C-alpha cells in the first residue's frame, strides 16, 4: 500500500484469502478482509470496499476481536460512510474508533478525532469543533492535526474563502496530504466558492467578470469556468457575455400556473373521451 501498488496487492490477497479460509483462521481473515476493503477504497471502488468490510464484520462477529482491530473496523466504516456523504453515521463510527484507540493510547486516536471534526464541518456544525477540541478527551491530542481542522472550521463558519486558502497553505501536511480529508475539503471549497459568488452577484443585474474576480481574489479564467458551471447547474439564472467580459444576471423566472393547469385539463378530457368510448362500444355490442 505504501508503494501505491493497489492492484498488485489485491492479486496477492486473492490467493491468500483462499488459503486462510481453508485454515479457518477467522482473526487473520478479518485482517485480510479489512486490508482488501482499504485497497478497493484506494482504487475508488466503493461497492467492493463495502463488500470486503461487510465480510470483515461478519468474520469479526463470530470471534473475539481485540479492541485495536475493532477500532480499525470502525474507522474504515466511518471512512466509507463519509465517502457516501452520510456524515452523521460516519461521525458515530469515528467516535467508536476514537474511544477504542484512546483507551489503548494508540496514536491513531488523533486521526479518528480529526475525522470526527471533519464530519462536523461537512454537516455545517463547525461551531461544535471548538467544544470537541476543548473537551477532556480532545485536550490530550491538541496539536497540528486538530489546529488544522479548527482553522478550516473557522473559515467555514465565517464563509471566508481567503481564510480557507490560508488554512490549506498553513496546514498542507495535515489537510492536502491526508487523502481522506483532502477529498472532502475539495467539495467544501466548491460549496464555499458558490456561496460567496451568489452573495457577491446578488445586487447586480450586469457586472464585469474582472470586478467579481477582484472581489473574490481569483483568476478571471478560473472564475469564468466556475460561473459557467454554476449557470449550467442552475445555481442562478444568467449568461456570460464574453465579448464584453460581463456576467448578465436574470431575475428568477416565475412559473406560470396556467401551463400545469392546462395539461391537467387536457389529461382529464382524455380520460372522459376514453370512458365515453368504452361506454359507446358496450352499447353498440
UniProtKB/TrEMBL annotation:
Keyword Kinase: no
GO BP field: protein catabolic process
Keyword flag Electron transport: no
Family matches, as InterPro entries: 26S_Proteasome/COP9_Components, PCI_dom, Rpn6_C_helix, WH_DNA-bd_sf
Protein name in UniProt: PCI domain-containing protein
Keywords from the UniProt entry: Proteasome
Domain PCI per the UniProt entry, residue ranges: 86-254
Similarity section: Belongs to the proteasome subunit S9 family.
Domain of life from the UniProt record: Eukaryota
PROSITE patterns (UniProt xref): PCI (PS50250)
GO cellular component terms, A-Z: proteasome complex
PANTHER family assigned to the protein according to its UniProt record, in alphabetical order: 26S PROTEASOME NON-ATPASE REGULATORY SUBUNIT 11/COP9 SIGNALOSOME COMPLEX SUBUNIT 2
Amino acid at each position: 500500500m505504501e508503494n501505491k501498488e493497489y492492484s498488485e496487492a489485491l492479486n496477492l490477497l486473492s490467493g491468500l484469502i483462499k488459503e486462510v479460509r481453508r485454515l479457518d483462521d477467522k482473526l487473520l481473515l478479518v485482517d485480510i478482509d479489512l486490508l482488501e476493503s482499504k485497497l478497493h477504497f484506494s482504487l475508488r471502488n466503493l461497492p467492493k470496499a463495502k463488500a470486503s468490510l461487510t465480510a470483515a464484520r461478519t468474520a469479526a462477529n463470530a470471534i473475539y476481536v481485540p479492541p485495536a482491530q475493532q477500532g480499525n473496523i470502525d474507522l474504515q466504516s466511518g471512512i466509507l460512510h463519509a465517502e457516501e456523504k452520510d456524515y452523521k453515521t460516519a461521525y458515530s463510527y469515528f467516535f467508536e474508533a476514537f474511544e477504542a484507540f484512546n483507551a489503548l493510547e494508540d496514536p491513531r486516536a488523533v486521526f479518528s478525532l480529526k475525522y470526527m471534526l471533519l464530519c462536523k464541518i461537512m454537516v455545517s456544525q463547525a461551531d461544535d469543533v471548538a467544544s470537541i477540541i476543548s473537551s477532556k478527551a480532545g485536550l490530550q491530542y491538541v496539536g497540528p492535526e486538530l489546529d488544522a481542522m479548527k482553522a478550516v472550521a473557522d473559515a467555514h463558519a465565517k464563509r471566508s474563502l481567503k481564510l480557507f486558502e490560508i488554512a490549506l497553505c498553513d496546514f498542507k501536511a495535515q489537510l492536502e496530504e491526508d487523502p481522506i480529508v483532502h477529498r472532502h475539503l475539495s467539495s467544501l471549497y466548491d460549496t464555499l466558492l458558490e456561496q460567496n459568488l451568489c452573495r457577491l452577484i446578488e445586487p447586480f443585474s450586469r457586472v464585469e467578470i474582472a470586478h467579481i474576480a477582484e472581489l473574490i481574489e481569483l483568476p478571471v479564467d478560473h472564475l469564468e469556468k466556475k460561473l459557467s458551471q454554476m449557470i449550467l447547474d442552475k445555481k442562478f439564472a444568467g449568461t456570460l457575455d464574453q465579448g464584453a467580459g460581463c456576467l448578465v444576471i436574470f431575475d428568477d423566472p416565475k412559473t406560470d400556473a396556467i401551463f400545469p393547469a392546462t395539461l391537467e385539463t387536457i389529461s382529464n378530457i382524455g380520460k372522459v373521451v376514453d370512458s365515453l368510448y368504452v361506454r359507446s362500444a358496450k352499447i353498440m355490442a
